[in-house]
Amino acid sequence: MSFCDFKYLSPPDIIENLALTRKAGANYLLNVGPTAQGGIPDYEAATLRRVGDWVGLYENVLRNARPLDGIRTTGRDFLLKAGTSYYYFAFDLTIRGNEHVTVGGGKSGPQAIAGLHRSIVSARWLDNDESLAFSQDARHGILTLDCTPYPHGTQLVVRIAELRTK
Q1: Which residues have CB under 8 Å from 114's CB, separation 6+?
Q2: Which of 11, 22, 143, 166 could make a disulfide contact with 50, Cβ separation 3.0–4.6 Å?
Q3: Which secondary structure element, helix H or strand E, spans residue 88, and what is its range?
Q4: Which of 71, 58, 54 is nearest to 14 (CA)?
């Protein structure tokens, strides 16, 4: 029997890791090696294509937004900043739909962000341009962002919202 590796990363694993490397301002290096014929193995190529679809939704943010100090969020969520906008990376969102059809837990609804003293004028999901409700006390640096669930049939693993400032 030849040596085999069955411990592959899934597209969600890679997407989550990529997002978290951006939180740290780091690069994500994947150990993908070519076959003896010089190609990328089929499973890895398919996985990277799916991750590329996600990157295509958020490429500008992933390339240009930078980490922030002093901003606190809940769970694994975090903010990056590019220009005058902030970008909220939301992990573990629920899916909108009938409870008997959608599976898996997760969160939706108000999410707290502390340490953000700039006044926010609008918030929206980048993937579908849906406006998000929010409330803010800029003087005290507190923002509550109403993270809506994924539309039924959608699961982006990590969803990004743009928060525009004045």
Answers
A1: 71, 72, 73, 141, 142, 143
A2: 11
A3: strand 85-91
A4: 54
